Amino acid sequence: MSWEWFEGHWRRYSAVAVGLAVMISCIRELMWTDAVYPASAPFTGGVYVACVLLMAVLPTVGAWMTLVLSIAGMLSSGFVDAVNDGLTLIGAHAVSVPWMPPLMMPAAGLSLLMLGYAGGLHMLLAAIAVLIAAGWGWLHGIPPFSVPVVSVVMTATMALLLIGATIRWRGQRIRAVAEERRIASEMTVRDERHRMAARLHDDVTNKLAFLITDLECMRSDPHGITGERLALSQRMAREALDRVHEVIVMMEGNVDDRSETIPAAAHPDARDDARDSIQDDMGERIVEHDVTALLAELDDRLRILGFEGGSSVECRFACALHADAADVLMALIRELYTNMARHARPDGGYDVNVAFDEHRVIVTACDVANAEDTHGAGTGLERLRRELAPLGGTIDVVAGGGGNEAIPGEWSVTAVIPYDPQKFNSRCEMTPGSN
C-alpha cells in the first residue's frame, strides 16, 4: 500500500468505520438495554451518526459538526444546570439533560485528526475550541473535567492535530518530490531530444554541403563525373533524407524516451555512418579506431572534390570516451571537414590531427580559406563549443593566419576534449611502445 493510496482513502474509510461503530452502539443502547431515555434520543443519535458519516464525504464540514456535538455532549450536564438556574429565577420549567450517544471519544478524536489534516485556521480554531470547552468544564466542576483530565485532553488534542498535520505534510512532500522528478525527467528528455535533433540537423547540413560542393565541381568539369562520385552523391542524398525523417520523428516526440539511441539510417549503406555519428549512451564507448575510420571516409570525400591534404591519429594512450564526449568529438570532426569543403581552397592543402593523450583528446585542423571567404567559428562550431563547456573542453579558432601572413588566409582550429575518469568514466591504458 503506497502513501498516495493511504492519504487518498484514510479519511473516507476511517469515517465510515467509526460512523458504523457509533450507529451500532446507539442501536444497542437504545433497544437492548432497560434504561429509559428521552423521546429525542433516537433523533440525537441519528444526527450524531450522520455528522460522523459526513466526514467520509465532506471531511472538514463533518469534522467540525462532530467536534461541536461531542463538546456539547461532554458539557451537557453542566450547561443544562446553568440554564435551569436561570429558568428558576424567572419561574420557568426546568429542562432535562439531552441524551448523547456512546463512543463520542473516538469520533471526536477522528474529527481532530481531520481538522489537523486540514491545517491552517481549522487546526488553530479546533485547539482553541477544545481548550475553552475543557476550561469551562473544569471551572464549573463538571465531571470528569478535573485538572489531570484537562491536561490529558489538551495533550491528546494537540497530538491528534499534529498527527493530522504530519500526514498532510508528508503527502505534500511526496507529491512535491514526485513533481520535481517529473519536471526533471521531462526537461532531461526535452533537452536530450533537442540536442539529438540539433546533431541530426547538423549532420544533414554537412551532407548537403558535401553534396552541393561535389555537384558544383561536376558541373564545372563534366569530364570528372565518375561512377564513384555519382554513387557517393546518391549515398549522401539518401543519408540526408533519412536524417530529415529522424529529425521529424524526434521533434514529434515519437522516439522511445527510455533510450537515447537514434535509429540508424534505413539504407544499408548509411548504417555505418549513422553508427559513427550518433552513439548510444547506454554503455557504448568510442575508441581511436572509430575516429580513424571516420577520418579516412571524410578524406576520401575531400579527395573526390579535388582537395589536397590528409589526416593523422596519434594514439599515445588507448582511451575509451564516455558517449557525451565521444558524440561531440565525432560531430566536431564532421563539422571541420564540412567547413573545409565549403570554405577552403582545394589546392591550398589541409591537415587534420587527432591526438589521444593521457587526460584529453586534442583535435587540430588547418586549411587555407578562399580569398572571398573568411570563415570563423560558424554556428556549428559555436554549438559544439557550448556542448564542450560543461565537459571542460574548449574550441579555439584562428582565422586569417592569426597575424602570421606567411600563409595568407590560413584558418586553424584547436579543440581540447578532456576525459576525466571520475567525471566521465573513461578509461585509458598505455599503448605498446608508449613512454
TrEMBL record:
Alphabetical GO biological process terms: phosphorelay signal transduction system
Entry GO MF terms: kinase activity
Regions crossing the membrane: 12-33, 45-69, 110-139, 145-165
Keywords tagged on the record: Kinase, Membrane, Transferase, Transmembrane, Transmembrane helix, Two-component regulatory system
Record has Acyltransferase as a keyword: no
Database matches in InterPro entries: HATPase_C_sf, Sensor_HK_TwoCompSys
Domain of life: Bacteria
Protein name: Histidine kinase dimerization/phosphoacceptor domain protein
Signal peptide location: none
Coiled coil: none
